[in-house]
Amino acid sequence: MRTGSEKLEEKILSLLRSAGGRGISQGSIGIKLGVSKSYLSDKLSEMENRSLIYREKGPGRTKRIWETLSHPGMSSKLIRIGLLRSSEYIPLMNTMRKVASRRKIRLVFRPTDSARELMSLLNEKTIEAAFAPLYTSTMSALTSGDLKIIHLIGSGGGAIFQRKGYDGNDCLTTEISSMTIMLKSYMSRNNSNFTLDSFTNPCKGLKAFEAGKHGRICIWEPYATCLRKLGTMEEIGSYRDILGELPCCCVVTTLDSASRVSQLIDGKFDGEIEWSGYEEIDFCGCSGSVRESLSSYNFNVDRSFVAFLEYIGRLGITVSENTASEIYAPATS
Question: Which domains are assigned to the chain?
Answer without folding.
Answer: 4-70 (1.10.10.10), 75-333 (3.40.190.290)
